[in-house]
Amino acid sequence: MDFGNFILNYLLQMAATLGVIFLFGKIIALCNGAFYRNLGRHGRAVCYATGFIGTPVHEASHALMCLLFGHRITEIKFFQLNSSDGTLGYVHHAYNPRNLYQKAGCFFIGVAPVLVGALILAGLLYLLLPDLFSGVSAEIAAVDFAEDVGASFGHIWQAFVLMFSYIVTWQWWVFLLIGSFIALHMTLSKEDVKGALSGIVAYLFIFLVVDVVLALVDAGLLSSFTGGVAACGVFLLFFFCIFLIIALILLGISFIYRAVARRRDAR
Asked: In which domain, by residue range, is 199 found?
């Protein structure tokens, strides 16, 4: 077994999954936090107004991962108003900490709003603009950083160009509106992050074991597996970037609102 190649494949897998998820999760969280702060006293009202879509999606994603990883849901609230601590929704769950699969599931349950949010965004694109979805999918499928980094970035760029070429259609604006509601409630809470971190060791261990087995059987299998993981990472990266663009647009609007509000108050 080529140890250097093994380590490289493992690191690439982690970068395509953990790196992408936590990096964009953090950036979007910072954008959302600044957005609500800029709205001042109206921030809570906007949070409630967008939460009737965003919060159920957030909580349902946690619940879905609970079911997939065998966790028992003990209590769930998809959306609630005027709670004592301001919490709009939550999912309480229980699991067997000695079960490696369930333990690894803690990671996926914690980051579920980010993962499922990207899948929902892809589903919306497919339903509203199937031709655009096909074109974007073709560009993403052509990405192969191992073969040609420059060409790969070119395909990602073309996917974005194609994405915004549909801006004149009403479906694109519906996509943007629903995407905004989801993006504003993708922020991972402290409990979400804590839960995800509690399962990260099991997540790393499972990938390590799979990689060792594949490398011992055939180095080509390990490379193919890494390619598949990287393809999933590119898919997530593209739709995370769409969410990031939405978050930045909303952030820009909030700064304009804050500037106008301050100028009005100064009079």
From this structure: 3-46+108-129+166-262
**Coil, strand or helix at 140:** helix
pTM: 0.84
By DSSP bridging, strand 72-77 and strand 90-94 are antiparallel
Tell whether the model's pLDDT for residue 246 goes beyond 70.
yes
What is the 8-class DSSP label of residue 17? I
Residue 252 lies in a domain: yes
Angle between helices 200-217 and 100-110 (to 10 degrees): 120
Query: Are 84 and 135 within 8 A, CB to CB?
Result: no
Please give the tally of structural domains in the chain. Answer: 1
CB-based contact 166:132 (threshold 8 Å) = yes
Strand partners for 76: 91
Task: Give the residue carrying structure tokens 């087995």.
Answer: 213
Q: What share of the chain is helix, strand, coil (3-state, %, to 5)?
A: 80, 5, 15
> What is the C-alpha R_g of the chain?
20
